[in-house]
Amino acid sequence: MVLSYVTPYIRHIVVIGLAAVLFAILSREPPKGAHDEQATNFQEHQRLFTEQELAQYDGREGSKGLYLVILGYVYDVQKGVKHYGPGEAYNMFVGHDASRSFISGDFEEYSPELSDVSSLTDSELKSIVKWKSFYDENYTYKGKLIGRYFDERGELTEYHKVVLKRVARAEAEEAKPRQEFPSCNVEWKQETGTKVWCSSRSGDGVERGWVGKPRRYAKQEDKSPYCVCVPDGTESDALVPFENCNASSESCYVKEE
Ligand code: HEM
Question: Which residue numbers delimit the Cytochrome b5 heme-binding domain (predicted)?
Answer without folding.
Answer: 49-146
